[in-house]
Amino acid sequence: MNTWSTRKKFFFALIFFILGGMVYKGYKSYSVSESSRSISKNEILHLELNGVIMNGKKFLSQLKKYSKDASVKAIVIDINSPGGAVGPSQEIFTEIKRTKAETGKPVICVSTGLIASGGYYSALACDKIIVAPGTMIGSIGVIMEFANLEKLYDWAKISRYTIKSGKFKDSGAEYRAMRDDERALFQDMINEVYAQFRDTVVAERKLDVATVNAYADGRVMTGAKAVQLKFADEIGTFEDAVRLAAADAKLGKDDYKLFKPRREKASIMDYLFTDEDDDELNSLSEVKALLGASKGASLKEMTEMFLKTKYLNQPLYLMPGYWQ
User: Which of 174, 208, 255, 262 to pair with 279, CA 20 to 30 A apart?
Assistant: First the structure.
């Protein structure tokens, strides 16, 4: 009797917990962190694109949500990113272009830190790119890394094998060496994605192919050099970008307010019941924090970090070496 009573209590507690999580998730999606927002007649929307771009969901949701507000007259995107996955970077680029076309509002990108690879690809959609003289910018290219852990598995006396439907189904597997035909297949894919990146730079920056080819070899350059070569527009700070956005929107010097969507503090309910992946969790600072607090990291996370396998086997617009 006592056992059955305990089970019933546990069952009802579990149901209550699940229902509570569903209500919380619905509330999170409905509520906006605007309770303290004092809406001005003229606002400049300030968005951030930080860390490794692996999906860009949070950035895209904020862009779509606020860009069409009547009070928002211009958008400033502050970028500090080494790049990331190809598809999400292209999606962010596309959505910024769509926002400009549908709203007619000026969009200014600014970076005083790092704007490389997928971060730079995203910025190409903006009306203007503002950088500090020492900003690291560029890394126009594609990278795809693989690891051969065959000897490590031998040392650990682990045998791995696959049952597959075609000869390329396990291409890039870490437990064996790569064949020549597999290497050629991946190289063709990289060349295709690289051409997409290069052609976007040519079209959006209005540069000739020869100029882009000369610098689109994965190198990074300073902001000052990028402006000189026309890969960026002007030298400036975040404040300069805001003033430029205001001027392009034909707003007076003191006739606007800067609006930045407030970042909600994560709670245990967020981790349990929300599926929104924040790219900022992949930033360099978060990686360092993970390594510095190894006791709080899972074995899988620590293995990925130390063996650098987290981003293997996928084409990336990502500046090499950022995680080292």
Answer: 174
